[in-house]
Amino acid sequence: MRILLAALNAPKGDLDGNLASHAAMLEQARVQGCQVAVFPELSLTGSVDPRRHPERALTVDAEPVGALLEATSRTGVAAVFGIAERAGPLFHIAQLYGHDGRLGGVYRKRHLGEGEEGYQPGHDTGVFQLGAARFGVALCAEGGVDFPWSDAVAGGASVVLFCSAPGLYGRRTDERGWRDGHAWWLSRGLGDAARHARRLGVPVAMTTQAGATEDEDFPGLAALVSPDGQVARLPDWRPGSLVVEVAADVTVHPVREAVRCLLVDPAHVSSLAAESIAELRWWSADELRASAAVATPRDLPGLLDRVARGDLPGPDEDLGV
Known about the structure:
- The protein is α/β, with parallel strands linked by helices.
- The chain folds into 2 domains: 2-245, 4-Layer Sandwich (Nitrilase/N-carbamoyl-D-aminoacid amidohydrolase), CATH 3.60.110; 258-321, no CATH class.
- Helix content is 27%, strand content 25%.
- The strands form 2 sheets. A 6-stranded mixed sheet has the order 5-4-3-2-1-12. A 6-stranded mixed sheet has the order 6-7-8-9-10-11, covered by helices on one side.
- Helix 1 (15-31) packs parallel to helix 2 (63-75).
- The longest helix is centred in the middle third of the chain and has 26 residues, at 175-200.
- It starts with a strand and ends in a 13-residue tail after the last helix.
């Protein structure tokens, strides 16, 4: 599996700008031959506090989400991205998985951190399918607990995506401040990733919000941690991207689709005989064309050709029955 990890700056509430950044990263991932692009926690909405700005949260069927899903179809690259989710009267920190233009799944953060009191925890395990491979998702404060990670690996995940948006206390006003904030996340976030990778024997691919927003700064980091402790990462806190590969085969081998049926029911064979039906069999479209058999609808071979092309008849169309 070839993955683009995006350490993204995600201004709060800037849906148009954040959507454009995601689309650009998906295009970059396409050019670099990646199957999936992974974005930080709360990457599309920004790090929203629903108690102060509930209007900045999105439903999973909101227009910006749909536009990002459409970009996965256009580029052929799957995306794992974050939103502040509105679900009726409740709010969740949600990581969405999209591929081929559709929503493939939602993981709602199960272990909330400090300052996330406006959200409700989720309940479902974050394990998703990409081709033949399975991957897990863990979010930010969940680095400090074991159960989301253990559940993901128990569910067959061969890699865990660690998506984060850890706000730094105090604003960064100079390079030393940014370096200090980044060093803290290297110790905390990267340290958590390394511990889980070693404990569970799977690689951890992590990505973090980066840079300044209207009222909060983020330490930025994209990295891949192997189970033996090897680390590939971006050099500092600035926004950027990192392309990595993990040993997870996404290839789906061809499946031969077929239908076979054997009907054994003497009570109903007798009923068919009463209708002068002597034989039941499967027909191909070519066999129907070559046969003198009378079919219903009258042009059944032509109808089969239409359906095979995706031209489905309308509900009011006369099929000549």
